[in-house]
């Protein structure tokens, strides 16, 4: 099912202006305008929606949207599994969500602690692990906690902050989180985190973006989304509003979701990593469009 969803993302931007306006509240329809012609591609056929990855499941009814937004990142599972084979376990998955990474880690024999503030997501993760089998289920520990103010037990050989989860951590809380991670890295361990890095001067020229797409679903519901992305460069914040229209043969349901995130200043992040007692061992950038690149950092504890 996850493979189907990821593949379906490549066709998301095929919507008419009428589709867009139907998904918007009446008060915003006059502002909708035509759909921008934006379809960044990573070369593998999977569509990337720059900066639109969500940071938590809003509710049970929003799981399909959440999976669609993270779909373009599904290829990173192979990369993280490769890191785990190099470092060994146990693994700490911070901001695990419904187990996109945690369950595959356990399925491949790694003990993994999955941390997330959303209890519904952790319950879905646990159900998925149980469906796979008792061995996978035993290797997963779920921990309900917010990353800001997180306190850890034990030591880990690999810590992951995937899906741009670092953007959900307030800048004032980030140094504390990184110090906590560094204090619990086992010998030869690594922290892997990713984030969208924006060219701020270019972003200032276009601080608002609008994307429209259809969420791939396989439950008889047609879901259309108009996403409004607004950047506040002075406050280094980002707000994304999702206007969702779900329709069946008998009913239409409209809802609005909002995600607020922090923009990452690479120099400030590197400073926080150094102050925590770690260093950046590897930096892997991936160009998304002329304004944004996706960056993966591999960090290790100082000797």
From TrEMBL:
Biological processes annotated in GO: methylation
Keywords: Methyltransferase, Transferase
GO molecular function: methyltransferase activity
Pfam family, one: Methyltransf_25
Domain Methyltransferase: 91-189
The protein's name: Methyltransferase domain-containing protein
Protein species of origin: Streptomyces radiopugnans
């Amino acid at each position: 099912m996850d493979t189907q969803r990821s593949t379906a993302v490549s066709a998301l931007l095929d919507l008419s202006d009428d589709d867009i306006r139907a998904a918007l509240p009446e008060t915003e329809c006059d502002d909708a305008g035509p759909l921008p012609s934006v379809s960044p591609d990573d070369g593998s056929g999977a569509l990337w929606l720059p900066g639109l990855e969500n940071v938590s499941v809003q509710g049970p009814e929003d799981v399909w949207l959440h999976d669609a937004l993270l779909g373009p990142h599904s290829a990173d599972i192979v990369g993280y599994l490769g890191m785990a084979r190099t470092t060994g376990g146990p693994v700490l998955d911070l901001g695990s969500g419904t187990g996109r990474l945690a369950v595959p880690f356990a399925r491949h024999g790694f003990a993994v602690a999955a941390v997330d503030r959303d209890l519904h997501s952790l319950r879905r993760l646990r159900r998925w692990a149980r469906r796979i089998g008792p061995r996978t289920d035993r290797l997963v520990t779920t921990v309900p906690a917010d990353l800001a103010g997180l306190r850890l037990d034990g030591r880990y050989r690999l810590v992951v902050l995937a899906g741009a989860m670092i953007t959900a951590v307030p800048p004032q809380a980030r140094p504390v989180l990184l110090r906590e991670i560094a204090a619990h890295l086992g010998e030869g361990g690594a922290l892997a985190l990713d984030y969208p890095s924006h060219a701020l001067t270019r972003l200032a020229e276009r601080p608002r973006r609008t994307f429209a797409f259809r969420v791939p679903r396989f439950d008889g519901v047609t879901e259309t989304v108009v996403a409004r992305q607004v950047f506040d460069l002075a406050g280094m914040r980002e707000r994304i509003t999702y206007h969702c229209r779900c329709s069946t043969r008998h009913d239409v349901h409209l809802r609005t979701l909002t995600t607020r995130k922090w923009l990452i200043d690479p120099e400030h992040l590197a400073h926080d990593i150094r102050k925590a007692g770690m260093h950046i061992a590897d930096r892997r950038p991936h160009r998304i469009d002329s304004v944004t690149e996706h960056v993966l950092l591999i960090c290790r504890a100082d000797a």
